[in-house]
Amino acid sequence: MANSRKKTRIAAVGDIHVRENDKGKWVEYFRTVSEQADLLILAGDLTDTGRAADAVTLREELNACTIPVVGVLGNHDYEADEQAEIKKALHSENICILDGDSIVIGNVGIAGIKGFGGGFDQHMLPLWGEKMNKQFVQEAVNEALCLDRALAKLDSEHTDLKKIVVMHYSPIKATVVGEPEPIFPFLGSSRLAEPINRREVVAAFHGHAHVGTLEGTTSKGVKVFNVSKPLLLKAGFNPPFFIFEV
């Protein structure tokens, strides 16, 4: 017998870079997303300057979004050291900003982290050398551990979930290809892919690499999508969001 369970349409976009003076700019966009999807994922760099005032404007624009919104912060959101205020400004019954935790919406379990850099595959930076280098690498290790805990919680508390991961930095090299190769270590880390591979994730979404590649897979075949808004625009998505069904 065919599975009659209704699929969930996930709209995903990253790097929207909302500014304080963007009032009214995003209303039609979020209305359109709501018409075409059941859930919106925001893959970091929600604000442009990292100020809470940007997030207040985004929160007002998201009033036009009638579907649940799940997001993570990106490097721009940390720029002014107001990340806590940004999360507070965005929090509502309909909006959840994840940071090493998870949420269940319908049949979908979403785990989210910011992620961090460090490079990919055989070119990953080692946890070795000067203290500053160790701190840089340790940040990606910590983020991967947070993601693993969030996915483990979904496994322990729920069954028959479609697990989705959202992050800002990339967990694989394939979806940053197109960017200058010397900056690959600052666009993501293969350490972030380990829990994705091990926890039977359906798909992962990230942003950050504005001129990367839309789609790739982890070493275990998990789909990864770079949904950075500039990349989606360049690829012909109009309006710029990506739809994935689970």
From TrEMBL:
Assigned keywords, A-Z: Hydrolase, Metal-binding
Domain called Calcineurin-like phosphoesterase: residue spans: 9-211
InterPro entries: Calcineurin-like_PHP (IPR004843), Metallo-depent_PP-like (IPR029052), Metallophosphoesterase_sf (IPR051158), UCP008292 (IPR016538)
One Pfam family this sequence matches: Metallophos
This protein's name: Metallophosphoesterase
Organism: Rhodocytophaga aerolata
Lineage of origin: Bacteria, Pseudomonadati, Bacteroidota, Cytophagia, Cytophagales
